[in-house]
Specification:
The protein is α/β, with parallel strands linked by helices. The protein has 2 domains: about 475 residues, Amino acid/polyamine transporter I (Up-down Bundle); about 180 residues, 3-Layer(aba) Sandwich (Rossmann fold). It has 26 helices and 9 strands.
Length: about 700
């Protein structure tokens, strides 16, 4: 096995064999922090965004908060139950995309995939920005470095994920469970303080809010906008359905259990945190200067920071534990996207809607190309929006509710198809106990997903209305553009497959076999190429020199005769200093005169060990090869010449002159290193043809 570069091994670890993939499947205790970190961490910013929007209308609007929160909880419950049905029906890991494509057709499937990919990018951006917000709440001096911190955390998460699923789950499990435990403890302590008559008081409870009078229509719109922001608590639910194949056996049951655990914990944390925030009087404004009495030159403490300070006391040990755990889990929430995006990308690549590179596993058995693309795009979004959570949140959840709605409609179609199939059975078969049980399950799924489709479609309409003018229009632009590109990629792959498909009308009419060795100067790499061409025993073999100046051509001809080279040298004039075009014209004329011969062009090429060496060589061989590959009847053979620096890669230095073995000259055996193994090449065969032409060296 070839060893990867040392830097790559240090960062990512040693490569894993494909046969080890089953060992890296996830048990439920590791799958929960991997797939649920997004949904669980949303309780850190969903209540905050909910209160932020309501406070735009004034303190009196906080009376709507319990009802808005209750609506979010009901919706989350319905969506979790709906996705348990989806996992059972489609366990292959395609999630909403697979459901939509199989039940509604190509275009709905592509729209769902585009919406999910956009949402995964925004999940990374929003989660990291929120995590940085919480860090700055505890350490305000870091505020000038907000964007740099966000970009650094994305890079760190990418590196951890590139090391593999097992390493990522181990790294992320402890912070996630600490977050669940610490926030759960804070909620219990806060509720106990409320029950015992000593309710916590937030630091912002003393601040009033500057507002303007609102019409009745504006009030309704404000409440709906608060609901849409609170619905960010639902993000990440779909990740489990997209990652079923990452679970250990039994995959479906483990995925369903993990989804139920995630939903239950998210509901409890969201409800408890919202309740304590309302009781303690947390006031969090979209514009901090709207808080009367607050020094808006300082960053506004997050809702989580205010609640933990109210319950445990500012700068207490539990306060810092909760802030640290919240910041870490918010950063790790991006990890949900780093599992969902590559898995969905691999499914799209498998179906021909994305580049095939997305379906290739890296050294650590993860879809590393998808992870790198996600990281780069998320970094770009964070830089453009300056890691501002309030601005980023306006783009969020649009994509996920598009996929929710279309996926639920697809599931309705799935259940109805099953019900129609049972109705078409003979009467005796319909009356059997197993059929009645199956019909009951189909009808139950239909009811659940019909409710889910109705609610998610309603929320999608609300979210669209309330967020469109606040920046969400960009998402509605990105989804069609990405869908159009996916359809274009699919059409391209389809056309290529049609073009190269095998048929019985292919005829093989090539006659003759000619080898051309391109020569610039007579040097060892050229001699090696000549030796290779002679060993291949072509019908005709000759060297070709593209002459830019007559002096160089004359010097080469003289040197060619002096060293008694065993093949003829042909000179092609090129007054305009082109190389590939004269050779292509030469090949064309040769085939016209001698028939449709197969022409093999040998190109010597340097192999170097340092990156900077490639800059110092003109890489003409590759450029010529790329152009000659367009010439009909031409095949290219690159003949590598390993410079001494290449031992950094291949572990070899000394070499004999090409042709020494075939000429019978004794040379010291070379040792080729492949990974950790040393391989000595075998000597010449005993029955070598003594009459075979050899390449003499200068006496």
């Amino acid at each position: 096995m070839d060893e990867p570069p040392i830097a790559k091994r240090l960062i990512l670890g040693d490569p894993l064999a494909s046969t080890d993939s089953d060992e890296h499947l996830l048990p439920k205790k590791r799958a929960l922090p991997i797939f649920a970190s997004d949904a669980l961490s949303s309780v850190a910013y969903a209540p905050q965004e909910l209160l932020l929007i309501l406070l735009t209308g004034g303190l009196a609007f906080l009376a709507f908060a319990p009802w808005v929160a209750a609506a979010v909880i009901v919706l989350l419950t319905v969506v979790v139950i709906s996705y348990r049905q989806l996992i059972k029906a489609y366990p292959s890991g395609g999630g909403d995309y697979e459901v939509a494509r199989k039940n509604l057709g190509e275009i709905p499937g592509v729209i769902v995939a585009s919406a999910l990919l956009v949402d995964y990018v925004l999940t990374v951006a929003v989660s990291v920005a929120s995590g940085v917000d919480n860090i700055i709440s505890a350490l305000p001096g870091l505020n000038p470095w907000r964007v740099e911190l966000a970009v650094g955390f994305v890079i760190l998460i990418v590196v951890v994920n590139l090391r593999g699923v097992r390493e990522a789950s181990s790294a992320f499990a402890i912070p996630t469970y600490i977050f669940i435990g610490s926030v759960g403890l804070m909620i219990v302590v806060g509720l106990f303080q409320i029950v015992t008559g000593n309710p916590p008081v937030a630091s912002s409870a003393q601040y009033a809010v500057e507002t303007q009078s609102l019409t009745q229509a504006a009030v309704i719109l404000l409440v709906l906008r608060a609901f849409s922001s609170g619905c960010s608590a639902l993000t990440g639910v779909e990740a489990v359905s997209n990652g079923v194949q990452a679970f250990r056996q039994p995959k479906v049951r483990n995925a369903q259990t993990t989804l139920a655990m995630m939903g239950g914990i998210a509901i409890l944390l969201f409800a408890g945190l919202t309740a304590i925030a309302l009781v303690s009087g947390v006031h969090y404004a979209e514009n901090p200067c709207d808080l009367i009495g607050f020094d808006c030159s300082q960053p506004q403490p997050s809702l989580m920071a205010q609640v933990s300070a109210a319950v445990f006391g500012m700068n207490s040990i539990p306060f810092f534990i909760i802030q640290a755990a919240t910041a870490v889990v918010l950063l790790l929430a991006a990890n949900t996207a780093f599992n969902g995006f590559p898995l969905l990308g691999s499914v799209l690549a498998r179906d021909g809607y994305a580049p095939k590179a997305l379906n290739t596993r890296g050294d650590r058995l993860v879809y590393s190309n998808g992870m790198i693309i996600l990281g780069l795009v998320a970094i770009g979004v964070l830089i453009v929006y300056q890691a501002n959570l309030t601005n980023l949140i306006q783009l969020y959840i649009i994509g996920v509710f598009v996929s929710f709605t279309i996926g639920q409609i697809g599931m309705i179609r799935h259940w109805m198809r099953g019900i129609r199939g049972i109705r078409d059975l003979p009467a005796d078969a319909r009356r059997s106990a197993s059929t009645r049980t199956e019909l009951f399950g189909l009808r139950k799924g239909l009811v659940i997903n019909s409710l889910g489709a109705t609610m998610t479609a309603s929320v999608l309409i609300i979210v669209t209305i309330t967020k469109f003018t606040h920046g969400a229009w960009l998402v509605f632009l990105a989804i069609p553009v990405l869908s159009f590109l996916m359809v274009g990629v699919h059409r391209y792959y389809r056309d290529v497959d049609h073009e190269i498909a095998m048929d019985d009308h292919i005829h093989f009419g090539s006659t003759g076999d000619v080898a051309l060795i391109l020569v610039n100067k007579l040097q060892k790499p050229v001699v090696k190429a000549v030796d290779y061409a002679l060993a291949a025993k072509h019908d005709k073999t000759f060297a070709v020199h593209v002459s830019v100046t007559k002096e160089d051509a004359a010097a080469l001809e003289a040197e060619w005769r002096e060293h008694r080279m065993p093949i003829p040298l042909k000179i092609i004039e090129s007054p305009y200093r082109m190389y590939a075009s004269p050779i292509a014209e030469f090949v064309k004329k040769y085939r016209e005169e001698h028939g449709s011969a197969v022409v093999t062009v040998y190109l010597p090429q340097y192999i170097v060990g340092h990156w900077w060496e490639s800059i110092l060589h003109n890489r003409r061989a590759r450029r010529i090869a790329q152009q000659l590959m367009l010439v009909h009847g031409v095949s290219i053979t690159l003949v590598p010449w390993l410079l001494d620096s290449s031992e950094l890669i291949y572990g070899r230095r000394s070499r004999a002159l090409p042709g020494d073995d075939r000429a019978g000259r004794a040379t010291a055996p070379e040792v080729h290193r492949v990974g950790r193994r040393a391989i000595r090449p075998a000597g010449p065969p005993e029955n070598a043809d003594a009459a075979e032409p050899t390449i003499p060296t200068k006496p």
